[in-house]
Amino acid sequence: MGVEICVEGLTKSFGHQVIWQDVSLTLPAGEVSVMLGPSGTGKSVFLKTLVGLLKPERGSITIQGRDLTKLRERDLYEVRKLFGVLFQDGALFGSMNLYDNIAFPLREHTRKSESEIRRIVLEKMDMVGLVGAERKLPGEISGGMRKRAGLARALVLDPEIILFDEPDSGLDPVRVAYLNQLIVDLNAQIDATFLIVTHDIASARLVPDNIGLLFRRELVMFGPREELLTSDEPVVRQFLHGRMQGPIGMAEEKDAAQVEQELAQIDDSAHVQERTPRLLPGPGVARPPRWEAIARREARLRQEEVAGA
Ligand SMILES: Nc1ncnc2c1ncn2[C@@H]1O[C@H](COP(=O)(O)OP(=O)(O)OP(=O)(O)O)[C@@H](O)[C@H]1O
């Protein structure tokens, strides 16, 4: 059962450049959360700060009663073992085959025997659908396979928290659909806490329990998926619709009068379409109890939709 991460009043700057300030949110244990935001709003910086690779100027990150921002390097090293991280390109070692790449954290951080390592590596490769690709080098496989190998490597130490940095970047829509299903199935199987940074609005609508949005150096909103999908907050609506009209500009924010004029011209009557059903774990995947609650909630939303149509 994953662990809760409680972030309070977090602020990160580089020199005089404030990346984001006063960010507070709770990632509920075992749930999937997605962090959205225009390019450069500091989503990757947020992931790196959570895992302790970057130090914030203010605020706290509490996991299992310990504030990560106050830990000494030795204790932080221990807490980091709770995390698995899937970096954008899988971050695999180019000269090692997939088996050795995935075995790497086990050889580095545990005293397990090679036969035990073999059992774990093959189990994780099976989980991500990579059986048979053990001897391949990262350069010999597709981007989608590299991501899955990176995910298998993130899983080998049985993390309580998995951070995904743009898992869908560079993948075609079919591979993205497979990856989304894999993420949902994995979450149901291992019940860890997931945080996914993505630009893909379709995935953000389908996959998570919770959605957050960073913009203008602030966390505009963080909450249950349905709340964000039906929110009237202009930044949230613009981002989730992927449209030009609204407060988010090409490079910087727009002036208030222009935003008001643009918003007045938008036909927002299609609210109901936003009730995308949550992607459920595939057949044969054992579902922890919270999935029953999700399925009931989704069924209720569908009924309301039909009644309102
Ligand atoms: N180590 C660093 N030193 C100085 N500035 C940094 C560092 N890392 C990131 N930044 C700056 O922080 C800002 C946010 O970067 P970040 O990569 O987190 O954005 P992002 O929201 O993930 O963007 P994208 O969606 O394009 O990947 C950028 O202006 C970047 O230049």
TrEMBL record:
Alphabetized Pfam families for the sequence: ABC_tran (PF00005)
Keyword Transport on entry: yes
Region (Disordered): 268-287
Compositional bias (Basic and acidic residues): 268-277
Listed SUPFAM superfamilies: P-loop containing nucleoside triphosphate hydrolases (SSF52540)
Record's keyword terms, sorted: ATP-binding, Nucleotide-binding, Transport
CDD domains named among the record's database cross-references: ABC_Org_Solvent_Resistant
Annotated ABC transporter domain residues: 5-241
Name of this protein: D-methionine ABC transporter, ATP-binding protein
Species of origin: Streptomyces viridochromogenes (strain DSM 40736 / JCM 4977 / BCRC 1201 / Tue 494)
PROSITE patterns (alphabetical): ABC_TRANSPORTER_1, ABC_TRANSPORTER_2
GO molecular function: ATP binding; ATP hydrolysis activity
